[in-house]
């Protein structure tokens, strides 16, 4: 039966090749677009976890509501051993986090100022890797500040320029301090670079009046991003009096984009195959009409209706599977090549940077996506064969044999 169906497909080579090429280009287009979308989203996710929020954050429950300077994490000494003993936690860093105003000789701007332990922060976030001018804070003197390139442009300052930071102290008073620009970083996310600046933990603690060990936030990175939810749930159980949030809770819009990416391929391929199914139905109907006399002969010598239905269905599935197989091979090769070379979108770099996306996109697709496409091909093939098969089953053998 399988051999017979394969030969039947190639009776009209032109007709079969047209639909096969349509399926090939459809698969390449669907897989290629999905791989591009996934690559863009996962690069944004890696940047967000690696540079901005980390995998998990711990706060005083009231801090996230009002960002008050005195809403620090209570009893830090009891939290740190829990984090140190968890083998799924790769590293953690505590921070002082406060809104402030930074003034240069030419301009001023509001920003979020982070007081960090430079060595611990290097194990949690990758900001040190994006320092384009000057040095990271681990090799700088007292009252050094690390700012983003976009902020430096707005303040019209450069390396070693002096700026004055004004903020609220723990006593409720306004405090000011002069800092020297030790480094300028550029993560490629202009909105992030414009609003974030880093100073040493000890320097900021002295200005706001904090005792050693007081902090607003603990940023945690795990050994594998897939463990984020597991570790978050464990910490929520052990640290019931604190706010423990994963990156999905801190940046829900990014979580939504990441989750939707898993369904994008299925949605696009369903639309593509649905559109192609009309062409396949037409092709198989023409094939049935061309073989009315032959099908009538087969039914007359004893082929039952079930076998006729199976024959038409197998022909449809083989037609779709041939085009899909070629399309999957070509799309796999294309994705693997672009995964190494990347897709250059520097013409749109400014707009993409404003949204936090990289101008060079490296396509990526999960291996199980190819299995989903094969299953979708089989389902579409079966559904597309119903109308042609019904046409064949309604033939009267005696009348079909007399058809010229």
Structure description:
This protein has helices at residues 2-9, 13-53, 63-66, 76-84, 118-124, 149-155, 190-195, 201-208, 228-238, 247-250, 252-290, 292-300, 305-341, 349-354, 368-393, 397-401, and strands spanning 56-59, 89-103, 108-116, 131-134, 144-148, 162-168, 174-185, 196-200, 217-222, 243-246, 343-344, 360-361. It has 404 residues and is α+β, with helices and mostly antiparallel strands. The protein has two domains: 2-48 and 255-401, no CATH class; 61-241, no CATH class.
What is the gist of this entry?
The chain is an alpha+beta fold. The protein is built from 16 helices and twelve strands.
List keywords for this structure.
about 400 residues, alpha+beta, 6-stranded mixed beta barrel, two-stranded antiparallel ribbon, 16 helices, about 20% strand
Please tell me how large the radius of gyration is.
31 Å
Tally of domains: 2
Strand order of the largest sheet: 2-3-8-5-7-6
Mean pLDDT across the residues is 85
Number of beta-strand segments: 12
Measured distance between first and last alpha carbons = 25 Å
Count of individual helical segments = 16
Specify the overall morphology. Answer: elongated
How is the topology of this model organized?
Elements: H1 2-9, H2 13-53, E1 56-59, H3 63-66, H4 76-84, E2 89-103, E3 108-116, H5 118-124, E4 131-134, E5 144-148, H6 149-155, E6 162-168, E7 174-185, H7 190-195, E8 196-200, H8 201-208, E9 217-222, H9 228-238, E10 243-246, H10 247-250, H11 252-290, H12 292-300, H13 305-341, E11 343-344, H14 349-354, E12 360-361, H15 368-393, H16 397-401
Parallel strand pairs: 3-8, 5-7
Antiparallel strand pairs: 1-9, 1-10, 2-3, 2-6, 2-9, 4-7, 5-8, 6-7, 11-12
């Amino acid at each position: 039966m399988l051999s017979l169906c394969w030969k039947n497909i190639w009776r009209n080579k032109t007709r079969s090749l047209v639909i096969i090429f349509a399926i090939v280009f459809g698969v390449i287009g669907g897989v290629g677009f999905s791989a591009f979308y996934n690559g863009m989203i996962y690069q944004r996710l890696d940047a967000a976890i690696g540079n901005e929020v980390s995998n998990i954050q711990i706060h005083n429950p009231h801090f996230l509501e009002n960002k008050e300077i005195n809403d620090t994490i209570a009893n830090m000494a009891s939290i740190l051993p829990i984090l140190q003993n968890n083998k799924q936690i790769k590293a953690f860093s505590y921070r002082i986090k406060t809104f402030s105003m930074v003034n240069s000789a030419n301009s001023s701007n509001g920003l979020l100022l982070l007081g960090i332990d430079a060595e611990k922060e290097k194990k949690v976030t990758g900001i040190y890797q994006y320092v384009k001018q000057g040095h990271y804070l681990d090799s700088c003197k007292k009252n050094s500040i690390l700012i983003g390139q976009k902020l430096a442009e707005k303040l019209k300052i450069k390396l070693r320029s002096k700026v004055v930071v004004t903020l609220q102290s723990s006593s409720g008073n306004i405090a000011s301090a002069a800092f020297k620009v030790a480094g300028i970083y550029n993560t490629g996310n202009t909105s992030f670079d414009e609003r974030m600046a880093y100073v040493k933990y000890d320097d900021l603690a002295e200005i706001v009046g904090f005792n050693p060990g007081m902090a607003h936030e603990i940023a945690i990175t795990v050994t594998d991003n897939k463990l984020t939810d597991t570790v978050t749930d464990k910490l929520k159980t052990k640290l019931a009096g604190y706010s423990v949030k994963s990156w999905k809770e801190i940046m829900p819009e990014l979580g939504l984009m990441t989750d939707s990416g898993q369904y994008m391929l299925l949605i696009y391929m369903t639309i593509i195959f649905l559109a192609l199914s009309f062409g396949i139905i037409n092709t198989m109907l023409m094939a049935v009409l061309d073989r009315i006399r032959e099908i009538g002969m087969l039914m007359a010598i004893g082929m039952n209706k079930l076998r006729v239905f199976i024959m038409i269905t197998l022909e449809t599935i083989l037609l779709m599977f041939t085009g899909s197989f070629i399309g999957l091979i070509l799309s796999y090769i294309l994705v693997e090549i672009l995964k190494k070379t990347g897709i250059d979108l520097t013409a749109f770099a400014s707009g993409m940077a404003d949204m936090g996306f990289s101008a060079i996109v490296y396509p990526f697709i999960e291996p199980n996506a190819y299995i989903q496409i094969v299953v979708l091909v089989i389902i579409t093939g079966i559904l597309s064969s119903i109308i042609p098969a019904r046409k064949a089953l309604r033939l009267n053998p005696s009348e079909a044999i007399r058809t010229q």
